[in-house]
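Hi P.,

Sorry for the delay on this. The queue was packed all week, but I finally got your sequence through. Input first:
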Amino acid sequence: MSHDGEDNKKDVEKEMLSEASKAVKFAKHAIEKTAENLHERLSAMDEEESKEERDETNITEKIENMSKSIMKSAQDIKKIIMKEADNIREFITGLNAELETWKFNAEDTPDGTRIELHAVAKLRKKPTS
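Then the structure:
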């Protein structure tokens, strides 16, 4: 029982790390794409401005449009990250319930109880840090 519980715990921890890694990679990719798009927009604006007169109204409009675009991109990224955080929270909640079950199943053996209680304590500390 003790060995199976430990193997299951390791499998679950690997799955949790895999899900968290996917979420981080996805968010990183979204941020990189947004940065690339903003860089392209700034480059395009620089080219356009060199062709046009530097009219104060035109520059103000461009800054306002760029600010709106940046805010929308930031909101989109925030939504993606929040969704992934919810998915990870849901996964960890399920994992906590599963580890609690393992803890109760392992109470028959003192070694198993110690191992499972340690796994629950370790898991609960991670999301708050």
